[in-house]
Amino acid sequence: MNRQDHIVRGFKATLVARAIYMISSALLMLVLARFLLDPDGYGALYWAIGVLAVIQLVADLGLGKSAARYFSEYSERDPGQIPHLIRTTLALKLGLLAVVTTALLVGHEWLAAALGDPGAAPFLAAGALYIVAFSFSTSSQIALQGFNRLGYSAAIQAISGAARLLFAVAFVVLGMGALGALFGYIVGYALSAAVGLTILYLEYYTRYEPAEEYEPGLARRLAEYSVPLTATRSANVIDKRIDVVLVGIFLTPAAVAFYQLGKQIADFLLAPAESLGFTISPNFGEQKATGQLESARRIYETSLTNVLLLYVPATVGLVIVADPFVTMVFGADYAGAVPVLQILAGFIILQAITNLTSDSLDYLGRARSRAIAKGTTSVANFGLNLVLIPTFGVVGAAAATVATHTVYVAVNLYIVHSELSLRLESLARTLGRICAITGVMAIAVLLVTPLISNLIMLFVAIGLGVAIWWVLAVTAGMIDVQEVRSVIT
């Protein structure tokens, strides 16, 4: 199987699994918001998850991605080191988890009071289990990505999403409320973690005969490479979670619900870009190691073009139909999420590029550069949130996210260009054609928007926009129907 076929196959597997994960997440979001929890309960749940995500940083550091980088390298160079690497990673992770979960169990009441919400103490106590389950679920998924076994990695993600939906809804229906939904998350991640760890043990730990000697300095390099990755991960959490925590501190649980709903919709739309980035990134490490940078450039430019072709029109359409979409699907109680979603439409484009680029930089060995950029912009994001949330509410939080992420994406693209020498003029011409297609599509959707009075008309408007986009993209030669058919089949 050549590299392109391998990428297409991996992308299919990842996209299917990501689709299962995102559809189950969307159903969970819809069922909880529309039927089972009021805005206060919904906000309380996701505010607690935001706090736990910050604590999770200490429990994970950058070990997962650091291990994946060395799994990718040594599976080709010296497979006998793989069992040693797995043992080192597991030992470090267990030590960190023991420290973090013990501290959380001892201090959960104090932490809840310090954050201004004593009622969150039960969520934080249950968070010790959440952190362990989530850590092993995501780490096994990333490790299998490092081995370029994207089908297995994708399956773990799909299992976690489907199980979360099943158990979260079941526990809420049984009368456990928002706390029951959190336990549903815990069970979902625990099941996927069990599957992932089993695969790692059977396929890799027992498959490779351990080398007689652990390569000198390899464990140290594994730990050292986790440092810039930790900085990047910390910055990612500041971007994705700390704003939710600050909204909860400065505003109300209902405000958290509005903001979180907007971000969840954005995450749902980002599934294809995340799948593509997850699929192609291990190839950059392999190609750099063998000096095939021309091939790496073609893969990145093609992927970037496809991402822009999909997300520029999609986000413009989202801005236009955000109001009827939110109020008709989730109910009038969540109308406060409309302006958040419209502002975060800009973030969707930026994050789509980030999903394509960030992991690739790690595999190219530029984790430190990315970490500096991410850390700087995340500190700026934190500062902007402190200023804008008390003044402008949830809209201020969304604006801070878009502003700082714009800078981060620009730096990422500069780093990629320095590594791969992108053909900027060609990419600029492509972007111009995409904007022209988007303009025609937007005019058509705007004309039918006043006619939207129910969900049927809403989906008709969306379908019209998709149809116009498809026809124009095919006509402009930006979509090859035969290639699309081959990917689907």
Index terms:
489 residues, mainly alpha, 16 helices, globular, transmembrane helix, transmembrane, membrane
Explain what you see.
- The chain folds into two domains: 3-247, no CATH class; 251-318 and 327-426, no CATH class.
- Helices cover 87% and strands 0% of the residues.
- The protein is built from 16 helices and no strands.
- Helix 1 packs antiparallel against helix 8 (253-269), helix 7 packs parallel to helix 12 and helix 9 (271-289) runs parallel beside helix 11 (337-363).
- The longest helix has 56 residues, at 150-205.
- The two termini are 16 Å apart.
- The relative contact order is 0.11.
- Keywords: Cell membrane, Membrane, Transmembrane, Transmembrane helix.
- One of its GO terms (cellular component) is plasma membrane.
- It holds the Pfam family Polysacc_synt_3.
- InterPro entries: Poly_Biosynth_Transport.
Mean pLDDT across all residues, rounded?
83
What is the ordering of alpha helices and beta strands?
HHHHHHHHHHHHHHHH
- How many discrete structural domains? 2
So how many helices? Answer: 16
Strand content: under 5%
Amino- and carboxy-terminal Cα gap: 16 Å
**Main sheet: strands, sense, barrel:** none
Poorly predicted parts: none
Number of strands: 0
Structural class: mainly alpha
Question: How would the global form be characterised?
Answer: globular
Give the helix level as a range of percent: over 70%
- Global Rg: 22 Å
